[in-house]
Amino acid sequence: MTEESIISEFTAKFKPDILEVARKNQKRAVITIKPEAILRTAGHLYKEAGLRFIIASAIHTKRGFEIYYHFSLDSAGLILNLHVVLDSVRPEIESLSNMFNASNWIEREMHELFGINFLNHPNQDKLISEGNWAEGVYPYRKEFKSVSEEKK
Amino acid sequence: MSRKTLIPIGPYHPLQEEPELFKLYCDGEIVKDIQWVTGYNHRSIEKLSESKTYEQVFFLVERICGICSTSHPFAFANAVEEIAGIEITDRTKYIRSIIGELERIHSHLLWVGLAGHFLGYNTVFMWAWKYREPVLDLFEMITGNRNSYAMFRVGGVRRDIENHKIAEIRRVLGEVKSKTDLLTGAVMDDPVIHARTKGVGVLTRQDVIDYGAVGPTARASGVAIDVRKDDPYAAYPLVDWKVITSEAGDVFAKAEVRLLEMYESISIIEQCLKGLEKEKEGEINVKVTEIPEGMGNGRAEAPRGEVFHFVVSDGSNSPARHKIRAPSYVNIATFKKSCIGQTIADATITLAGVDPCYCCTERLAVVCDAHSGEKLMNAKELIERSAVRTASLNKEFNCNK
Q: Which residue among A13, A56, B135, B248 is least crowded, i.e. fewest CB within 10 A of its CB?
């Protein structure tokens, strides 16, 4: 499958769920979707189109919490970023870990560092700071100030 | 229900000097479940990166790993150059690939040595680490450092490989190649290594896809993914080489893939050196004025697999968000599949099989006097210095009663 056929098939199949499609160049695409469509869209990419899940990146911005799910089509060198924008007060989204294990740890990590809740995740225990970090304090949120920043 | 015994490996690993804890839940000698505990050394590099300028981030990400210290700057450079749309010169491409491949050679040699050590085959350990030394010396000649080479910057590299150094690089490569032959022969023909690694820690093709494993771990299970081929960067599309795969998915296949990859690396470097000779010396940088708003997905094939950097720029001089995914992050997760059902003795080599990333950058520097050439600290003085240090520690901890 080529990168063009993957993207055209995807945009045709999930037209109502897609908010925006941006192409930086031939090998990079960012598709913004509605958060409630994450399971079916990611499922299509993984199971039917055969893309590999690289990782997901969360960002805290003015719009709220944004997650980029990075998928790779290795045969064509394409990176497809599925982009969702979550609510800034109660960020939550369906977990992908029941579909593939590759997202298990990164969802735990995002839960721990950003406080994003992943629904139906098999085990949302802390991954990095187990036992030595306060509950409900999320270090990667923009309002969190490190010790050196507070001194300024 | 039978009772399970908990066998801990860590938090200080007896062989690989980095803190992590594997909890093996065993029934008799068989591993029934495994749990990985990490975070002992979390440095929050992603958050730190947001407070540094693009030029400074290179030095920060270089310190993520002490062995594959060029793979993170490599991926970060790819990401930032994608945001700014920078096209680097051909000479830079060749230099970057040479550094990347030299690193792959010394990293794979290090792994082969460690794997031998895990199996109690210390001859392989000593050989592999001895033959790795000339590669590190080569790095010192090219970059000034044996590890953490500080070669990368946005739009280029910091140091040129001058053409008069090429002959020396060729000589060392020839030496490394003959030693690799020796080592490959020793590993591939040894009945003890066969007995200890064949059929051990098998990872199927489906497991690799499920966990998203990368690098030699994936290629040993027949999944032919390699960023250098799939999403070519630097000089890899300009040279001729092939992706090494194996089908069995066991520890032996992983060793086989790594050993054969070293030959490909040597061949890539030789071709890059030919390319360097054709390019004009000194053309190693392009002018970069600003990093515009946008985002970039940068990746590079490290010795352990795909390194992925996601950089978001808001137009300022430092990243707004910088996500880093090292290959071990996805490879270590596969232990859930490969270790369960193994004996404890086999589990240790299975854990080492994916080459989880460890740091070993300690070294001894011998300083010579510039005029007389005399060593300023000889062995006797070092021993005396060590004795003084031990005595002061004893005093501090009140050990000398």
A: A13
